[in-house]
Amino acid sequence: MIKMKNLTLGYKKEKILNDVNIRVKKGEFIGIIGPSGAGKSTLLMSITGGIKVFNGKFEVLDIDLENIKKKNLIKLREQIGVVFQGYNLVDRLSVLDNVVSGMLKDIPLTRAILKLYKNKELEKAKEYMDIVDITKHSLKRCDELSGGQRQRVAIARALAAEPKIILADEPVSALDPKSAKKVMEVLKRVNEVYGVTVITNLHHLEYAKEYCNRIVGVNGGRVVFDDNSEKLTDKLVEKIYAVN
Ligand SMILES: Nc1ncnc2c1ncn2[C@@H]1O[C@H](COP(=O)(O)OP(=O)(O)OP(=O)(O)O)[C@@H](O)[C@H]1O
Ligand SMILES: [Mg+2]
C-alpha cells in the first residue's frame, strides 16, 4: 500500500532523505528509529503527501504523490489517521465528543455542533473508546486526562475516521514508561484487530523492538536498516545511531 522507489524528499530546495526504497504491505506495524534530525518525521509525514518529491517513485494507497493534485490529496488524507505527540485534541470537549469528531466527514456540521449523534455513531464511538480503554472516562473533558489517556483518545479519534494507515510521530516520548507501554499496546491492538497499517517514529529503541514487526532505521537522511525487529543486532543499532 506504500511504495517508495529511489525516492528523494525534502523541503523547498533542500533534500533531506535520499534514495529511499521502502514497500509497505497492509497490516504491517513499523517503527522508524534514528538520531534526532535524521529525517524520521519527514519520512513519516511524506506519506500524507505534504513533503516535496525531488526524485523517484512514490505511491500511497494507489495514489501517485509526485505532483499530487488537490483532489487526490484530499482522497489520500481521508484514508490516513495521524497521531502527534501533542495530541491535538479539543481540550474543552469530552472524550466522546473528540472521538465522534473523528467521524465528522459523515456527520453534518450542525448536528455535530448540537451534539445530536445517532445511535450508530455512539455505538461506533464506544467501540473505539473500548479498544483504547478509555470508555470509563468518556464524559470527562480532555483537559482532565493524563498524557497517556489523551494519547489514547487521539488514537480512538483517528480510528473513528476508519483509516487504512495510522501514522504516529513520537506518540510516547512525552509519557512515563507505564503510560507509554499502554499506548504502544493500544497501537498494537488497533493494528491487529482492524488490520490498520501502523507506522510510528520512536525515540525509544526498546519500544520499537518490543512492539513493531519491522524496523526502519534512518541516519543522515538515508535508510540504513529495514528488516524484521529480531534482526536488529547491537552492531546495527550502533550504525543507526552513529554520529556523522
Ligand atoms: N519544515 C521544514 N522546513 C525545512 N527543513 C526542515 C523542516 N522540517 C524539518 N526540516 C529539516 O529536515 C531535517 C530532518 O528533520 P526531521 O524532523 O525529519 O528529523 P527527525 O528524525 O524527525 O528528528 P527528531 O528526532 O528530532 O524529531 C532536519 O535537518 C530539519 O532541520
Ligand atoms: Mg521527528
Automatic annotation (TrEMBL):
This protein's record includes keyword ATP-binding: yes
Domain ABC transporter per the UniProt entry, residue ranges: 2-243
UniProt GO molecular function: ABC-type phosphonate transporter activity; ATP binding; ATP hydrolysis activity
SMART domains: AAA
One Pfam family linked to the record: ABC_tran
InterPro entries, per database record: AAA+_ATPase (IPR003593), ABC_transporter-like_ATP-bd (IPR003439), ABC_transporter-like_CS (IPR017871), ABC_transpr_PhnC (IPR012693), MetN_ABC_transporter-like (IPR050086), P-loop_NTPase (IPR027417)
Species annotation: Halarcobacter anaerophilus
CDD domains noted in UniProt: ABC_PhnC_transporter (cd03256)
GO cellular component: membrane
Keywords: ATP-binding, Cell membrane, Membrane, Nucleotide-binding, Translocase, Transport
Name of the molecule in the record: Phosphonate ABC transporter ATP-binding protein
UniProt keyword Membrane, yes or no: yes
